Q: What sequence folds into this?
């Protein structure tokens, strides 16, 4: 049972961090593009 939770932490945590980073990058890129075109 413990091994399952460790496996989930090892897989899901990096995935959620990556998706968070991607969304932040997308927001920052959107801000840059908006400023560039204003």
A:
């Amino acid at each position: 049972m413990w091994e399952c939770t460790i496996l989930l932490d090892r897989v899901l945590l990096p995935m959620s961090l990556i998706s968070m980073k991607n969304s932040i990058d997308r927001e920052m890129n959107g801000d840059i593009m908006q400023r560039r075109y204003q």
